[in-house]
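Quick entry, no commentary yet.
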Amino acid sequence: MMLTILGSGSLVPSLKRGTQGFLLQENSTNILIDSGSGTLYRLLKAGLTYNDIDILCYTHCHLDHFADFPVFLFTSKYGIPPRATDLTVMGGKGFLSYYKKIQDIYSRTIESDLFDVNIVEMPDMQISGMTIRTCRIPHSPESAAYRFTSKDGKSVVISGDTDHSPDLVDLAEDTDLLVCECSYPDGMKVDGHLTPSYAGRMATEANAKKLVLTHLYPPTDDVDLVAQCAKEFKSEIVVANDGMEIEV
């Protein structure tokens, strides 16, 4: 599997980091996880377009993770060429209600006769031999984390925004790669988000092999996140950057 960091930042505008988005590729399967504003443009830099995405997965519906979802649907209908294959969209419990609200707002501008949009809430499912598992996490009511496992047993877990979560630890048990939110440096902990030490502690509890810190607010650029995280996690730690590719 290949994971591309499309956006490693937060809701705060940054010239260095875009809003959250990840591209996970396994053979010919392309999965887009979250799509904050500008994700479709950064997807082009990774060599793909809206027509290449097989599944959209959303950790939750805050705009720095979700803003390009209606844009994706609008582009898929009117793009050159328009999308002509059905689209599966995964989300947490309650995601369907957000989709229906988007339909009410944008109506026919996002509804195409060429493809269907299939909304599924927190299923365990398989696509092209890849297994996808989910769990609920403490952030917003519809928040979900994802575990993607390839045919050969390699796995990637993406936390989304979260506080400390035993369910996320269970989901990430023995994973090859844990991509975990790390919004603020140590000493700036807020409810619903993590710092390097908290992220490292969960990675240790899960026995993850490698940890990637993402969802980085500007204050994190002024400190040594790896050093702070290494107090709790002794394996490999990577600070995410836009465009970074990680092979699993």
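second:
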Amino acid sequence: MATDKELADFLENVERRAFKQAVYAVRKDEAALDIVQDAMIKLAEKYGDKEVAELPPLFQRILQNTIHDYFRREKVRNTWVSLFSSIGHDQEKQEDYDPMEHYQPEPGTMAAESGADKVERARTLSAIDEEVQKLPARQREAFLMRYWQDLDVAETAAAMGCSEGSVKTHCSRATHTLAQALRAKGITL
């Protein structure tokens, strides 16, 4: 079980990486700060009694879910704002006015993405996940810690209980294997 100090140290250590990840996802500093804060609070409240080694993957899952929740709220908020802002302008002139016919999502948001783009993104993410799962355990572990959790080589080596050179080797092999498998499926990143 993690002590209060261990939990505080973990949160302090992960804060900058989590913020960078959230900013990259939502592209708004204020929203990213809220997301990271919410994720940290959820981790402390619900999983503060877990072992220190269990905290990084739990926090990543909580952070990702909080980012997804943000996008869901934004989609709903944008839909209602658009609907209410258009009601009344043309409605007096047209009895058959349908606000959804005039709804224009904000460019760059998930709502503005075409159906084909959403399907392609989902297909790509599914293929990447499938190929990551096929990696040998140590390669997968090193790859996820380095590129998903954004740990540096020394932190990854300490977490895996191996040398920094081994981490670099595992990551190199994993990226080459993933690139080759994804190219074979017609996916280039």
